[in-house]
């Protein structure tokens, strides 16, 4: 297994409920290190570009509305197998299907307002990290 980096976003439903610390405690307890982090309020254009792979899906407009409804915390997690480990800690997209103890099972409100984003492959992680962070902002 290799040391990897992955993009994590704490979504507006979670920042709104003051859950950023509780969520990040789970990442850190699992051995992932937060090597970059910022709290931002995404513009609609920024959110649409980030989620453009889903542009054809019926939920796309609602998803963009949700992602710009409040601040988010974007961050880079680093560790062994970080992409898959983060996805495992997050749980399934739909919190009703997420394994117990996962972030989405514990905190998500719905399939849309599901508290966290995580890159789904090392290739997409590199693209997503570069979308939010310059190299000098990532401090391992
Ligand atoms: P993921 O976040 O688990 O990778 P994706 O399929 O990539 O899930 O979907 C991106 C985001 O779009 C989800 O995290 C969720 O916020 C939203 N989403 C996915 N499927 C649905 C749906 O069926 N209805 C409403 N929102 C959805
Ligand atoms: Mg996804």
N-to-C span:
18 Å
Helix content: 25-40%
How large is the share of residues in beta strands? 15-25%
Shape estimate: globular
Structural class based on helices, strands and sheet pairing? alpha+beta
Q: Major sheet: size, sense and barrel closure?
A: 4 strands, antiparallel
The number of E-state strands comes to: 4
Average pLDDT: 98
User: What small molecules are bound in this structure?
Assistant: inosine-5'-diphosphate, magnesium ion
User: Which spans of ≥5 residues are poorly predicted at pLDDT below 50?
Assistant: none
Which radius of gyration do the C-alpha atoms yield?
14 Å
Strand order of the largest sheet: 2-3-1-4
Please tally the helical runs, counting DSSP H or I stretches of 4 or more residues. 7
SSE order in H/E notation? EHHEHHEHHEH
Give descriptors for this structure.
binds magnesium ion; 7 helices; 140 residues; alpha+beta; binds inosine-5'-diphosphate; 4-stranded antiparallel sheet; globular
Can you offer a commentary on this structure?
With 140 residues, this protein is α+β, with helices and mostly antiparallel strands. It contains seven helices and four strands; from the N terminus they run βααβααβααβα. The chain has helices at residues 12-16, 20-29, 44-50, 60-67, 82-90, 103-107, 122-132, and strands spanning 3-10, 33-40, 72-80, 116-118. It has a four-stranded antiparallel beta sheet. The longest helix is centred in the last third of the chain and has 11 residues, at 122-132. The protein is globular and about 35 Å long. The mean pLDDT is 98. The structure holds inosine-5'-diphosphate and magnesium ion. Residues 54, 59, 63, 93, 111-112, 114, 117, 120 line the site of inosine-5'-diphosphate.
């Amino acid at each position: 297994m290799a040391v990897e980096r992955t993009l994590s976003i704490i979504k507006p439903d979670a920042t709104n409920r003051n859950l950023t610390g509780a969520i990040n405690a789970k990442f850190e307890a699992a051995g992932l290190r937060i090597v970059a982090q910022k709290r931002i309020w995404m513009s609609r254009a920024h959110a649409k570009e980030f989620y453009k792979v889903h542009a054809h899906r019926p939920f796309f407009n609602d998803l963009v509305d949700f992602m710009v409804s409040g601040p988010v915390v974007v961050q880079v997690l680093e560790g062994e197998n970080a992409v898959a480990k983060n996805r495992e800690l997050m749980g399934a997209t739909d919190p009703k299907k997420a394994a117990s103890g996962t972030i989405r099972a514990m905190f998500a409100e719905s399939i849309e307002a599901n508290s966290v984003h995580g890159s789904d492959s090392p290739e997409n992680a590199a693209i997503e990290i570069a979308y939010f962070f310059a190299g000098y902002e990532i401090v391992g």
